[in-house]
Amino acid sequence: MDGLEQLLYLQGVSLEYTSYQGENVYFSNQARCSVLSACGYNIDDEVEVAQANFTLDVKPWLQLLPQQCFSGQDDDHFTVRIAPEFSEAWLHWNIYQDDKLILNGSAVINSLVEVGNYHHQGKRYSERRVVINEDKRAKLKGLPIGYYQLVVRTYLPTDDVLATTEITSHSVKSELIVYPKQVYQPNTQRCWGISAQLYTLVSDENFGIGDFNDLTELISHSATAGADYILLNPLHALFEDQAERASPYSPSDRFCLNPIYIHLQDCPDYPNSKLAQQLVKQQLSANADKLTAMQSEKSNTYIDYQRVVEFKYPVFLVLFNSFLQYELGQNSARYQKFLCFKTKHNDRVQRYSDWLIARNNLAEQYTDVNFICYLQWLAHEQLAQCQSHTKSSGMKIGLINDLAVGCSADGHEFSSHEDLFVNDVSIGAPPDPWAPLGQSWGFPPMDPIKLKQNGFTHFRQLLKANMRDCGALRLDHVMALMRLWWHFTHSRSEQNACYVYYPFEQMLSILTLESQLNQCAVIGEDLGVVPEQIKSALGNAGVFSNSLLYFCKNQDGQFTAPEYLPEHTLMMIANHDVATFNAWWLESDLEQRQQLQLFSDNEQFAQAKSQRKQDKVNLLIWLGNYSANKTALHADSDAKLIYQALALVLANSTVALLTLQLDDLAEEYLPVNIPGTDREYPNWRRRLNKSSKQILADNTFLKQLVKNRQQAK
User: Fold this and answer.
1) Residue 282, class by beta-carbon neighbours within 10 Å (0-12 exposed, 13-18 middle, 19+ buried)?
2) pTM of the model
3) How far is it, in rounded angstroms, from Cα 248 to Cα 405?
4) Which of 122, 479, 500, 544 is least crowded, fewest Cβ atoms below 10 Å from its Cβ?
5) What would the mean pLDDT of 607-627 be, rounded to a whole number?
6) What does the alpha-carbon distance between residue 392 and residue 220 come to, in Å, rounded to a whole number?
7) CATH of domain 74-179
8) What is the Cα 391 distance to its own chain's centre?
9) Quick one: 609 exposed, middle or buried, by C-beta within 10 A (0-12, 13-18, 19+)?
């Protein structure tokens, strides 16, 4: 292996992959070398390439311990790498947690089992397995899961057994991560729940966009209907100074929340401010007239984000001033709680506020750092109250948060960790039937080497922040744990893209640990081109997969029989990236894509229409085989009847988590998002045409759904 090929391997740059059609696709040398250049290597300098290879390949063998040691809870060991001159040495280790000694031990190095070796410059370096607790009679048979500090010392005693002087001694510190076999498993069987885009919710008390009060109402009505969870869109901070950047999957910062979801009347400062109450009353009166007109016309509306911001932020400011007057002035317990919030979040909220103000896009009256922090505090408090409400309402899981796969290149998360991310590269997905040219999502990838050298700190903190105030976390594009599709922004050709691999085993170990520590289940969105390796590993780790009925087909194109659907999965008929079921059944989504010129030509459009008609025939056959409803269903049947029949069959299957999309229950036909569009369609703006109370009022259907779920246990 020459130096360049070695560096490509060490950096995780893939040589090939298996396409959606099952074909082996080899990446171009140009694309592969572009990864190295993007990561800062000068590939034309042989000396620099050789030095990089030494750092990544040889140097780890010259160190007694890596920066982090990973030990499975049942494995109970770590490894050391020993130079030949220390093969006769003694090894002593201490394990601490929060500076408290937990466990220690000693062993002669040549008595330890060798698990690997490496030759360099005539020397043979040996990797040895150190069992943490060999005394099986000890009460402490192993370490509980968690993060520990590991201190290891090697020493060569003199030949004189009475001497106490050591000839050679070497001490190294590392972090020991003891992880469980599986992520947290909720004590539930055959649950069902609702998926909802929070911003789409409508009510008499919001201001043109769904908020945390609407979520509370949705929780109440869903729980009454027997639902066990609410799956939400990502709630990450977007760009408060650019209101129309609306995609929840293109965040500025995944550690902070979008304050647009704050419900004004639920703010504790609201009762103290007559001005805030007056402003809200005026706006609600105007909204009521508009909502009545909309409902009478039975039409969909789109969110005007700028208008929402222009109303909400002046009221936010009034509430903040009231907070300063009544809480800061008295140094109250609530003000101390605000200070604790800022401290608890490790100054991240403070840094976010500084960054936002430094952009110079906010109106002058909003440029108080504490004002931005105050909004983050309110958002976190109201989200926590929503999760608490799920539990008091009897939901088994509660809220399921959604963690976006990346962050925007001009956002706060990127700017505050710029050394971790790679410029001029966008992550995305390879070509498939839904995107023949592949996809580029506009998010810079993290450098896998720097991620590891950073001790996975960013990844760990990201999980911890998003596992707060929920019962489960959905990982958007879970394949990112193992590999990401890097697309180079200077080229639109899918030939100038390739996969880059990440330290999957370590990242999965951290995921299982954080999941258990936070008592938060994990769902991995694994749609698209997914290697069997990651499916198997995630399944063994107890991560729920994420399936869409649209894509659950066998090789003959027939829909998968219910008994063969994967059990440990979150099953949906449709989600935010595909057509609502109403549109799918009526084929209006295809007509819309044709109007938006998303088909390459009329022939492709005709093929899509033909395929859809065949899919509908196959779906009717599937229902005929498995539906308990013997009422004849046919191509002209109402979409609502077909959807309910589908849901009831799935409810009677063994899938663990059955999820009904609120948009489908509301019989929406316009999508919230059309992948591949930006300005062509108002993505992330379409509101629901009914309130959650109206949508969930069909007691007959929902009661039967609950009954089927119970029978499936």
Assistant:
1) exposed
2) 0.94
3) 11
4) 122
5) 95
6) 10
7) 2.60.40
8) 23
9) middle
